[in-house]
């Protein structure tokens, strides 16, 4: 099939099946814009690529997700994510309050400089945060981790919500507490008070598909599934598995354009970054041999903001049911309606 792209953005298509084996053609458009002081939604010359799979900061399974895959055959929620760097307050130099205001949704995370546990008058206390210049927005610096310090493997354990993080201790841990690092990102209402606390990991980025809560929606891959469903997904698979961020970064799908977004704590001078979600409507015209052309609108599923590179991207998605062979679709024509957002 031919793809004609009448936009300056990235487009792609994927042949997939849904949970119950129905054929789908998943259509994706990804638009990248400059994050500028004028808040004018002008597309960048270099468009960010469409990710067909999750990309990681390091080795998969040993590091956090940098960018989540840009596809799903079904979405119940839209989502936002923030990647890049965070900074201390210029007066404090040791900590800051990070926040994202997205329409009526607000998320706040406290950022600290490096801290360790130290015993004081018989109690474990965090040391004062050290001064710092910037910190990468990565879940490695949020609460979590894997503890294999015990000699017996049965006593090894990990934080299912973030196995690559900092501060987690297994029940029978042999790790010394004195000098152990604390996470640098914490929710203000869940600050660590004890080395054995297990608060919710705090971050603004993407979650790996084998982390909770995503893995809880992946379904049951047991003997019954092998006999009755394989190669289909399990019956209890939920599309919430495709929610690639923390629950407090989700909103109804599709995301609405026109909403204002304000990010605070992500610049060295602590000046807010702001944008307004553009209002345009990507469309795809599908030409087929056996039938008249079909028009398929794409819905906004994700906003990703890169505070360091100063761009943001919008990912639009559609899942078109395919009746008959994929080869019957001869052409895909992508174009946009509504607000013009490129020169």
From TrEMBL:
Pfam families: DUF2169. Residues 21-316 form the DUF2169 domain. It comes from the Bacteria. This is DUF2169 domain-containing protein. It comes from Sulfidibacter corallicola.
């Amino acid at each position: 099939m031919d793809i004609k792209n009448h936009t300056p953005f990235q487009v792609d298509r994927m042949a997939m099946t849904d949970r119950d084996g129905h054929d789908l053609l998943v259509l994706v458009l990804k638009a990248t814009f400059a994050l500028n002081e004028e808040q004018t939604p002008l597309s960048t010359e270099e468009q960010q690529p469409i990710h067909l799979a999750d990309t990681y900061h390091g080795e998969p399974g040993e590091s956090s997700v940098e960018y989540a895959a840009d596809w799903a055959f079904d979405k119940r929620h839209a989502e936002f994510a923030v990647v890049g760097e965070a900074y201390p307050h210029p007066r404090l130099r040791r900590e800051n309050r990070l926040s994202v205001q997205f329409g009526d949704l607000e998320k706040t995370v406290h950022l600290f400089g490096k801290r360790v546990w130290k015993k004081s008058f018989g109690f474990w206390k965090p040391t004062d945060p050290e001064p710092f210049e910037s910190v990468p927005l990565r879940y490695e610096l949020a609460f979590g981790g894997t503890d294999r310090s015990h000699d017996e493997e049965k006593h090894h354990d990990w934080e299912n919500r973030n196995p690559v993080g900092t501060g987690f201790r297994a029940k029978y841990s042999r790790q010394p507490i004195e000098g152990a690092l604390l996470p640098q990102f914490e929710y203000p209402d869940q600050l660590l008070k004890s080395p054995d606390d297990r608060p919710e990991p705090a971050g603004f980025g993407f979650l790996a598909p084998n982390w909770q809560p995503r893995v809880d929606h992946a379904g049951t891959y047991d003997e019954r599934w092998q006999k009755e469903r394989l190669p289909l997904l399990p019956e209890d698979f939920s599309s919430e598995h495709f929610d690639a961020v923390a629950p407090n970064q989700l909103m109804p799908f599709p995301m609405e354009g026109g909403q204002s977004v304000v990010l605070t704590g992500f610049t060295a001078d602590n000046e807010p970054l702001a944008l307004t979600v553009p209002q345009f409507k990507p469309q795809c015209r599908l030409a087929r041999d056996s039938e008249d052309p079909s028009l398929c609108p794409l819905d906004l599923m994700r906003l990703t903001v890169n505070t360091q590179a100063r761009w943001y991207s919008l990912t639009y998605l559609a899942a078109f049911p395919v009746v008959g062979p994929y080869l019957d679709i001869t052409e895909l024509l992508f174009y946009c309606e509504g607000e013009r957002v490129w020169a």
